[in-house]
Structure formats: structure tokens, C-alpha cells
Amino acid sequence: MYLNRRNFIKTISAASLGTLIPNIAVASFMKPIKSKKLKLSFRTYDLQLKHTFTVAEYSRDTTPVVLTELEYDGIIGYGEASMPPYLGESHKSVTSFLSKVNLAQFNDPFRIDDILTYVDSVDKKNRAAKASIDIALHDLMGKIVNQPLYKLWGLNPEETPVTSFTIGIDKPDVVRMKTKEAKGFKVLKVKLGRGNDKEMINSVREITDVPLYVDVNQGWQNKEEALEMIHWLKEKGVIFVEQPLPKENIDDMAWLTQNSPLPTMADEAFQRLSDIVAFKDVYSGINIKLMKSTGLREAHKMITVARALDMKVMMGCMTETSCAVSAAAQLSPLVDWADLDGNLLISNDVYEGVKVINGKITLNNLPGIGIRKL
Amino acid sequence: MYLNRRNFIKTISAASLGTLIPNIAVASFMKPIKSKKLKLSFRTYDLQLKHTFTVAEYSRDTTPVVLTELEYDGIIGYGEASMPPYLGESHKSVTSFLSKVNLAQFNDPFRIDDILTYVDSVDKKNRAAKASIDIALHDLMGKIVNQPLYKLWGLNPEETPVTSFTIGIDKPDVVRMKTKEAKGFKVLKVKLGRGNDKEMINSVREITDVPLYVDVNQGWQNKEEALEMIHWLKEKGVIFVEQPLPKENIDDMAWLTQNSPLPTMADEAFQRLSDIVAFKDVYSGINIKLMKSTGLREAHKMITVARALDMKVMMGCMTETSCAVSAAAQLSPLVDWADLDGNLLISNDVYEGVKVINGKITLNNLPGIGIRKL
Quick check: A281 contacting B, CB < 8 Å? Predict the structure, then answer.
């Protein structure tokens, strides 16, 4: 019923057209069919933001996402692709990618390495689309063995970090209002980089003394001015500075990291696992987001590699439903800092999953990524 | 019954003595007790080698091991510590370590990170003893969710490598005989480093044309002579050279790796995860053994980190039963080369597990590490 009611797009994989693989009739979607092949379906959706979201480059009120379902033997895993404009993906690019993926060639959902290696090979780009399959596959696997992913990964759910809540760039009165609304959070992440940095911080500090993370989104240009600002921010109780300089400025960034009194975190500069080693002396750490990493599989490896390089790790997110946020939260006992507030920024979530309780990410006992449909 | 019959040593953890934790009577071991705490037991055992084992430094006919069992809620995971003399561990050091470990403080076997972090903190040394707990814990976890570990790790069991069979240093006629006996193997690992290197290789080559791995066990002293020998070995069909120089000779080793026509693999030089990054330009790759890595948890991370550093990975073993060999085999789909013949070198194995079929490591569908008691 769900698939019809929600107008799910039936995926008939490109590879199955014209082959001997039977074309499954739409009627068969009326209830979950037990099959021993993986079946992917997906639909587009627009997240409504509670507040207009402003960063250094742009503002927006909605975020397009694609919600995926991966079915095997009557069990369904949920996934999601979130496409904030700066990543260059859209409803069209993600559904186009997902339509090209033929998961029906796999009859064992535990072959995660094979499946995701294949998915990664379908196109060079489409990291969010790839994540939507990775998340659904992990959710499915966890449901098959009836355990939350954090358990299968051997993690202690009590070691989740607090999450920051993001304060976008705005006028002082709006910033003060948003800061008041965020009083349940133990740490705030303040967006900077549009020329009113001190005004932003001072507005927040009029309301609260909680520790602050700062995200510049490449908004600073001059390394000496950046260093001076970081010293000022440290005095204001800031913990780290994310993506202070344009991602291309590797040498300036290495100089800034070497001289900075606060850790510097790579965000836009950093996408895949293969990027990390080169960043060892350029940034103090990395901000891992499932929509950049292509999902949980690579994100987990990123954490392991970053730790071996003595780098800090934070787990971030896009504006996304409780699906992708809950998936990221499964790994969060391993990170230093988390910014997993994407689901809290929207008014039309379609799942319930991990909660923020007293500012801390709180995992539940549900299997897989730990979500239920609303 | 098993525990009495085999004279298992009941572990009463040091921490529980004199506390309010009840002292469990020996009678309760007559059948598995259902408890919601982890319970560790262990016994010493001596493996009988089919052939006297000779490497550059010494010869021996037996290897001491300690076999562990970790029980939770009526389910038992198996583990093993193998103590070849050069690692500096013994029956006494391992049982002494295990007696100090208080696993009864944990009531959730899925808290693998917490448990193994605690175990690692009990003493700085005792890597094999730590591995015996790690292996049993992973076996237990896999049995609880009723899946082999390779499945929980998302690996394809068909991607296991062939394993080499080891030919120890001996006189030409013995080497020829051993090589004939090893005709089922698709690759052989030849021990070198005692001055009769060319004689060893030539003796093997009189019998077979299969590819060879070479393990020098730090037996060469001069880097130029080592390079000359490696060129000769390449002509003889050798694939890589393991631990050619003494582990302390870092600079010579880096020079040799830079100039070598064959990959160089770190064995004795390399123990823990934290060692790997520094070896990036010193060796081409690493030989991971569970008895060095403290078990599967860290071994898995080592593979991830080595791959990120573009290093080769091989999985090796000590002389050990099918317990530790089968555990290592669970990770083997991820490695380039395997030398997992430790259980084939002994005449008194106590488990059956992974098999070598047509020279290839062959995983089974049993949960956990995939073994059964003989």
C-alpha cells in the first residue's frame, strides 16, 4: 500500500530492460513481495525548512531529497539522498542515477562491498545518490540480523556526542531569536564568512555562554586576517573553525592550521576517503557527511583512517530527514564532534529516529539505522 | 562436560576476588549456564608440529597456545593465543594476563570497543593474550546474530586469496621432500636468511614452478646484497620479500623498498595500528597477524589504513589451531596475499574451520569465526 499511496516510482533497472528478468507488475507492490533479489525503489520529496537557511554563498527555504527503499525477502531498508544546491545534485540527477543502478543482479544483501563497489562504478559523480543506496543497504542488513548498526560495529551508544544546532547568518535580532530558540542545545554552530563575523558571534554571546563551533564555508580570503579572527574567536569560547579558507588554498590552509590556536576542519575541501591522507598537515581534522562520503561504508573507513593520522573527526549532515541523520548517528560514538541537526531544521520529516535529549544524540534499540515511518 | 573433561581452568578474575561478585561454583560448569555477563575461561595446550620448524633464529617442534572460551547467555565464542617464542609470550604470561582480565563487568557482548579497550589497558604487552579474547568475542557476537563475520563485514567469501604453504630452512633433500608434499598449494612461502638462500630456492624450483613468497625474518644484513638477491629472486618467480633486513634498519629498509623490483613486506618490524603510518615509505606493505594486532578488531582497521596509504596487505599467522586461522580467514577477502597455513602444520588441531581447497582459503557458512570443535 505504501508504495502506491506515496506514488513511489517503480524502478525498472536499465539493465533489466530487454533481458529475461521478468518485469514485475505494479500490482505486486500492493504488499511487500518476498523475493531473493534486492529491489530498489525511490521517490522525490522537498524538505521545508523552518527558517530560511543562509550561508556564505546563498539562501534557501527548501532542500530537495530523494527517499529510497531497498527490499529483500520482505524486509525493507530506508535510505535518503539530500541535495543542497552546492553539491551539484538535484531530483533529476539523483533519480537518473538510481534508474541506471541494477541491484537485481545481487541476491545477497550481505555482499555490501561488492554492491557498493558496483554502485560507485555506475557514474563518477552522484555521491548523494550513492549514499541513498548505502544507507538503505545498511538499514536492510541491520534489520535482517535484527540489530542496530552501532551494535554490529561494536560501539557504545552512550558515547554519542552532543550535537550542535546551526545558527545561520542573519541580522542581530534574528540571530538572538534563533539562539534563544536553541536553548536546549549544549553547543551551537555559527555560520560566518559574510563580513559580519564579530556581529554574529556577539549576538549569540548576548544570549548564551555555550561552546561554539564556527563554520566559515570558505568565506575568508586572507590567511593572516583568518588567523587574527581565530584568535579572537578562541577568546569568545569557540572550539574549532570549519573550512575557513577557499578549498583550493592548500598552502595557505596548511600555514593557518600550523599557526591556529583552534583546530581547523575540512568540509568543502574534502569528499572521499582517498582525499584524507593528503590533508594530514593541511587541516586538523575532517567533517564527514554521508552525502559526501557516499554513505556509511566509506564514512566508517574515513574515521579509521583519520584516527590513524591523528586527525580530529566531526560528523556533519545536510538538511535531511531523520533517515540520513539517524544513519550518521550510528557512527557518532566514534567522533569528536557532531553537527547532526539536519532533521531538526525541517517541518515535514517523514521518519522518526534518533533524538536529541539534553543536547546529546540519543540512539535507540531499533535495528539498522534506527528509524520508523511517521 | 567439556570444561571438566578438558581440564579447563576456571577464571576467577582478580578483580572479583574479595568483592561482592559471587564466586561461581565449579559444578555450574557441568553445563553452560545462562548468564547475562561475559564469562571467560581458558586452558593451555601444546601444538605438535608435523615437521621441525626452522627460521633464521631457531628451530622448534611444538608451539604453546592458550585456548579461550567466552560465554554469554549460553552461547560460547572460541578464541586462541599462539605463542611462538620470539614474541616473548608463554603459557604463563598468557594465563597470568587472562586471570587479571575481569570481563564480568560487561553485560553486553556488542560493546566490543569498550571491552577491547579495557582489555588492551590491562597490560602493555600480551598481544597474543589480547587476541585470544578479541577472537572469542567476535565469534560470540557472530553466533548471537547467527552470521559469519565476513558477512557482517560485507565481504564476498569468494574473494578469499590462495594461501601459501611454508617451507622452512633445511637441507636440499628435506626441502625437496617438503615441496613435493605441498603440491596442493598454488603458492609457497620459502624461509630464507640463513646463508643458503639460493640453495633453498633452487631446491624448491627443482620440484615446482608455482609462485613463491620469500620470508627472510630479518636475516639479511647488507642492503646492497639484499637488493642483488631480490633481483635474483624476481628472476626465480618470487612475488614479494618479507622482512629482508633487521627491523631496526629503517633507513636501509626505505632505500631497499625504493629500489626493489619486488614489494617488501613488514613483519617483525610492525605490530600495532599506530605503527603503520610511519612505514608508508619504508615498506611496500604489511603482514598482519592476529597475534600481533591483538585480534580482529585492530587487524580490520589496519587493512583500512594500509589501503588508504596505498600499501599492500598480507594476512599471516603463527602456528595455531583452526580457531585463530579461521578468524583471520574471515578478513582475508580484503588482502592481497595470505599465508594462513598455521593449522596445516600441526598434527593435533582441536577445531575444524576454514578449509584450503585447490590452494584457496574457503570460508563456510558457520556463524562467527566459522569453526566447530573436533
Answer: no
Which residues on chain B are in Cβ contact (under 8 Å) with A116?
A: 154
> Among the listed ranges B48-52, B98-102, B126-130, which one has the minimum average pLDDT value?
B48-52
Rounded distance, CA A18 to CA A10, Å? 17
Q: What order of strands is seen across the sheet that includes strand A59-72?
A: A39-54, A59-72, A75-82
Min Cα–Cα distance to chain B from A103, Å = 15
Confidence of residue B315 (pLDDT cuts 50, 70, 90): very high
Number of H-type helices and E-type strands within chain B: 12, 15
Cell numbers found for residue A101: 543502478
- Run of H or E including B131: helix B127-144
Residue of B nearest to A310 (CA): B274
Q: Which site among A133, A145, A149, A276 would you substitute to test the B interface, given the most B Cβ atoms closer than 10 Å to its Cβ? A: A145
Nearest to A160, CA basis, from B113, B144, B122, B117: B113
pLDDT digits (tens, 9 = 90+) for A119-147: 999 999 999 999 999 999 999 999 999 99
Please count the other Cβ atoms lying within 10 Å of the Cβ belonging to residue A373. Answer: 12
**Which residues on chain A are in Cβ contact (under 8 Å) with B146?**
145
Cβ <8 Å between A308 and B273 = yes
Fold type of domain B2-146: Enolase-like; domain 1 (3.30.390)
On whether the CB atoms of residues A80 and A321 are closer than 8 A, the answer is yes
Domains of chain B by residue range: 2-146, 151-373
- Rounded to 5°, the CA angle A189-A194-A200 comes to 45
CATH code matching the domain that covers B151-373, chosen among 3.90.226.10, 1.20.1050.10, 1.10.3720.10, 3.20.20.120: 3.20.20.120
Indicate the SS3 state at residue B118: helix
